[in-house]
Design a protein that fits this description.
Layout (H helix, E strand, L loop, with lengths): L1 H21 L7 H9 L6 H34 L11 H15 L5 H23 L8 H26 L2 H9 L7 H20 L1 H9 L1 H6 L4 H23 L4 H14 L3 H25 L8 H20 L5
Helix pairs in contact: 1-13, 2-3, 3-8, 3-9, 3-11, 3-12, 3-13, 4-5, 4-6, 4-7, 4-11, 5-6, 5-11, 8-11, 12-13, 12-14, 13-14
C-alpha cells in the first residue's frame, strides 16, 4: 500500500511541475516547457521559461519541501500538533532583519536581502533558545514554545517600528505577503544546497525523532543523547525553515499543515514522514504558485494567500475528522 502511495506521490509531483511550467501569464506549450528544462533550442518562450519560470518552480519545490520537513520535525520534537517553524522565531527574525536591511541598505539586491533575512532567522532562533534555556535544566519543548511566542511578538514589533520610522512599510509588507516572483538562478543555487543537506541530515536523525516524539523518557532509557539530538534537530529546522522563509517570506503555515496530511498516509515513523512531507510539500507549493500566477493573470496573487485558502479548510477538516490521531 505504501509503495502505491509513493508512486502516486511522485506522479503528482512530476505532474504538478509539468503544469507549473506550462501554465502562467504567458501561456506556453509542452514543447517550449521541455526545451526550457532540457536547455535545447532556447529562444522565444523557451528562453523566457528557462530564465524566469524554471528557477521559480525549482525554488517552489525546495521551499515546499524545506518548510514541510521543518514543520514535521518541530511537531515531533515538541510533541505539539500545532507547532510550526514560526514558533522558533524564524519568521519574526527574518522579518526584523529585512526591515533593517531595507532601512540601512536601500539599494540592496535580492541576494543581500535573502542572506540578511536568513541571518535574522538565525538570530531569532538564538534569542528563543536563550530565553527558553534560562531556567535550570536547559530548555524544554514547552518553554521553547512560550519563548518563541514572546520573542516573535517582540521582533515583529521591532520590524514594524523600523518600517514606520524609515517609511519602508510597503517593501516589508510585500515580503510578508510571501511569494516567489523574481526568483533567480543565483537564489536557487544558494537555497538548494541548504535544503538538500538539511533534509539529508534530518533523515539521519529520523529514527531518533520517532522515539522522542513518543516519549522522551523512553528515548533516554534507550541510550539516546537527548540534548544533543535536540540541538541537532533545532539546527536542522533553522537551516531548512530559515533559508525558505528568507526567500519567500511568512509562509510557515505550510510547515504546520503538510505533516498532518502526510501522517494518515504513511504512519508515524519519521523515516517515512520526513521524505513524504518533502514530496507532498513540494507538490503543494507548485500548485499554490501556479494558482498565484494564473488565477488573476497577468496580475499575481500572493502565494501565502493561496496557501491559506487551499490549506486551511482541508486542515480544519482533517482536525475535525481525525484530530485525535494527531494528539
Amino acid at each position: 500500500m505504501r509503495i502505491i502511495m509513493w508512486i502516486i506521490s511522485i506522479i503528482v509531483l512530476v505532474g504538478s511541475f509539468a503544469v507549473a511550467m506550462t501554465f502562467g501569464a504567458a501561456e506556453s506549450g509542452v514543447t517550449e516547457a521541455w526545451q526550457a528544462i532540457a536547455g535545447e533550442d532556447l529562444e522565444g518562450k523557451a528562453l523566457i521559461l528557462r530564465e524566469i519560470r524554471l528557477p521559480r518552480e525549482v525554488a517552489a519545490m525546495l521551499v515546499g519541501a524545506a518548510l514541510s520537513v521543518a514543520g514535521a520535525i518541530m511537531q515531533g520534537l515538541t510533541r505539539n500538533p500545532l507547532a510550526d517553524p514560526g514558533l522558533l522565531g524564524l519568521t519574526a527574525g527574518a522579518n526584523a532583519a529585512l526591515a533593517f536591511t531595507y532601512a540601512f541598505f536601500p539599494g540592496a539586491n535580492y541576494l543581500l536581502i535573502t542572506v540578511g533575512s536568513f541571518i535574522g532567522a538565525g538570530v531569532g532562533m538564538a534569542l528563543v533558545f536563550g530565553v527558553g534555556a534560562m531556567n535550570r535544566g536547559g530548555f524544554s519543548p514547552f518553554r521553547i514554545v512560550l519563548a518563541g511566542a514572546a520573542i516573535s511578538a517582540f521582533l515583529f514589533g521591532i520590524a514594524e517600528g523600523v518600517s514606520l520610522i524609515f517609511k519602508i512599510s510597503k517593501d516589508v509588507s510585500m515580503w510578508t505577503a510571501g511569494g516567489l516572483s523574481g526568483t533567480s538562478w543565483g537564489q536557487v543555487q544558494l537555497l538548494a544546497p541548504l535544503v538538500l543537506v538539511g533534509i539529508f541530515i534530518a533523515m539521519f536523525f529520523a529514527k531518533h525523532l520517532t522515539i522522542m516524539s513518543l516519549n522522551e523518557e523512553l528515548a533516554v532509557g534507550l541510550g539516546q543523547k537527548v540534548t544533543s539530538v535536540k540541538w541537532a534537530l533545532f539546527v536542522i529546522i533553522v537551516l531548512l525553515a530559515g533559508s525558505a522563509v528568507a526567500l519567500v517570506g511568512n509562509m510557515a503555515f505550510l510547515g504546520l499543515m503538510i505533516p498532518h496530511i502526510v501522517r494518515p498516509l504513511v504512519g508515524y515513523d519519521y523515516r517515512n514522514v520526513l521524505p513524504a512531507s518533502a514530496v507532498i510539500g513540494a507538490s503543494f507549493m507548485l500548485v499554490a504558485d501556479t494558482l498565484a500566477r494564473t488565477v488573476n493573470a497577468p496580475y499575481e496573487t500572493p502565494v501565502a494567500a493561496i496557501v491559506s485558502f487551499i490549506g486551511l479548510p482541508f486542515f480544519l477538516f482533517i482536525v475535525q475528522r481525525k484530530g485525535q490521531s494527531f494528539s
